[in-house]
Amino acid sequence: MVLFSSCIDETTVLNIVHEDGSITRKVTMKGEDKKIDPESYRVPLDSSWLITNTFEVGEKNDTTWILTAEKTFASADEITQEYLHDKGANKSMKRSANFDKSFRWFTTVFRYTETIEKALTVDLPLADFFTEEELSYLSMPQRIQEELERGADSTRVKILADSLDDELGKYLVASFVKQWMEIFSEQAKSNPAHPLDLDAFRARESEFVSDLYVEADLEGFNIDTFIVNKLGKEFVSAFGPEIDSSTSMTETLAESFFSANEYDLGIIMPGKIIATSGYARTDSLFDEGEAILWKVDGTLFLTQDYEMWTESRINNYWTWILSALFILFVIIGLTIRSKSKQPGSNSK
Amino acid sequence: MKMKRDEKYQEVLRLLKKHEPQLNNKKGLTEEIMYSIRRPGEITKSANRIQTCLFAWVGNYWLRGSMAIIAAVFIGMFVFQQATIAKRLENIEKQLVRSKNSFTQADQDLGTMQKAILKMVALEKDSITVSRSDLEAFMTSYLELQKSNENFKKNSVINKSLHKNLRKQAERNTSTDES
After folding, report:
1. Considering chain B, what is the average pLDDT of its residues?
2. Chain A residue with Cα closest to B160
3. CB–CB of A101/A270 below 8 Å?
């Protein structure tokens, strides 16, 4: 029996998008052990991929094993199909890929998108909790964060990272409370024996969030005790099944968040990049070319879809030449016309 | 008698002048004359015919207008596309620059100043003279950093373990349901 390791330190996925819509996908996984359990893969990989194993020895003589896998997909739909049949560590994530090509005469614009659907059903924008700078840092790949934390502005970056921790805690609590209350409200509506003032109940959301944020960190915290304390024993006994069901459903919905294993995603597009939602660097981290980078992390798709998109364009020079010839032809024609209209000409 | 002859001649001339000669194929005649008196190097007949064929549309008002509009549309479309792309490239450069400036090179001058100060203090002199305003600004920044550091130490336990606790609760409840 072969023993596999589930310890993967780092996973990087690079999508090289070609003009015809095909995508060459390269996955690099680094870990301490040579053999990695396929169930711990962060993205779908199987025997159809070209897989190679290498290693590198670090400064402290520690060995890092590197698994590199490569496969070319005919279209983004094939990547989506692979995601649908994923049996790896992130199988509960609902991921999809999409490629668009639009011919705009003088240019052709390409757009590649990978989307992760939100885990919860409630809408809670990250922008309500984080500043633009914090969001930018949050979605930055870890290696870039580490570089910044060692860079010239390290003190400022560390302060930013710490403020991020504060807001992250509040965001997580707010998300779960909101989701729980929404499910509970739906279920309590159909309990005619115990009518509930839903508006008054929902109005207590911010109170629940702030109290849970403080109490969850205390020693011996128990969620059931918390609910009893907040809602009262009578309420809990009246709506016991609904409370349990809501808690269970919230946990099920949040499964993809809790089980999410982080990885970095890079996209290289044909032509020149004109817009993106990712992190752009002037110096590329990849030999294949300049890539736009994202971090895939549970926090980023808890309450809103996480869309990683990039647009690029190439110039259609043959249309430029054709258009220039046509414009020149028209100008010449109009010039001839204006000359023939001058006095002394034979034209009618 | 001579007078009568002169009158007859005048009458004949008057009659001749009254009725102009009828020319056949005026256009062709014009072209022939123009061709005959053309300067050396002027376009040949066949070239003239090609030009006439290619630019026949010039004579038609609607065709002329349509072609001009199409050419203008091409130019407008090109300018609009290039302007849009230039704007998007500017935005993405700002995005890159902002990311860089926000985290790595927020104050390029400060980095240079720091190097200059180090050089003055560490390598050339035992002490330096600074202005009161610079010293006050430095002290203010230092106190702000110190306060942030204290807040960080105070909240680090609460915030970092919150996620862990929530996860533990979820696992505990899941295992309770399963049992």
Report:
1. 73
2. A165
3. no
Residue B51 burial (C-beta neighbours within 10 Å; 0-12, 13-18, 19+): middle
A132, amino acid identity: E
Helix (H, G, I), strand (E, B) or coil at A99: strand
- Chain A residues with CB-CB distance to B57 below 8 A: 333
Helices A240-253 and B132-178, axial angle in degrees (round to 10): 120
Query: What sign does the CA torsion over B86, B89, B94, B100 have?
Result: negative
| Nearest one of A250, A228, A240 to A182, comparing CA atoms | A250
Residues 70-89 of B with CB under 8 A from A: 70-71, 74-75, 77-78, 81-82, 85, 88-89
Residue with tokens 């929404």: A182
Residue A234's closest CA among A196, A206, A202?
Answer: A196
Lowest mean per-residue pLDDT among A215-224, B25-34, B143-152, B155-164: B155-164
Task: In whole angstroms, give the CA distance from residue A176 to residue A183.
Answer: 11
Subunit contact B68:A334, Cβ cutoff 8 A: yes
ipTM attached to this prediction: 0.72
Distance CA(A253)–CA(A263), nearest Å, equals 21
What's this model's pTM, rounded to 2 decimal places?
Answer: 0.70
**Of residues A107, A152, A323, nearest to B105 (C-beta):** A152
* Statement: residue A296 has pLDDT above 50: yes
- How far apart are alpha carbons A156 and B107 in whole angstroms? 11
Specify the DSSP class assigned to residue A113: E
